# Entry
Amino acid sequence: QDDQSRNGGIFVARVSGSPTGLMNGIKAAVAEVSPSIGIEFRSFSKQIEDSLLRERLMATLSGAFGLLAALLATIGLYGVIAYMVARRRNEIGVRMALGAGRANVIGLVMREAGTLLVAGVVVGVLLALWAGRTAATLLYGLKPWDPVTILAAVALLSMVALAASYLPAHRAAALEPMTALREE
# Structure
């Protein structure tokens, strides 16, 4: 209930057709009893919408912070993979000098990124299931184990992670073997 309902009451009426005639009759009846009583008419859907305003705001903020977290995770994964490639320039140069092609180097880097991705997905799904179960006790109608939502989130985050990993992998494959070996 909102703060205004504490100072008054709520009367719910179900009508078929237009409620205008009923509203005028109620206003007239209340005015006969006490003209100082204020009356406000709202539809039931408007009452529900107003009562859920705080929850809608929290959902919007949660979504925005979720997008920010995904962006930060993408940047972090890119940084980790780029650092891994930079630390292994000499090894990548040796591999390429011994005949490893660009596809092999990209595959090597992407496999390692995939390992990080799988570990993150496993931990993330377990935490999401735990958080969903906790949230289900607080929010009405929430299904904590919606497989479509979980699979969609995993697919989206996997695509983002693989895209963030591709640029460092591509850079590693573009290394000149002799240049990489001389830098060490």
The chain has two domains: 3-49, 53-183. The first helix runs from residue 20 to 33.
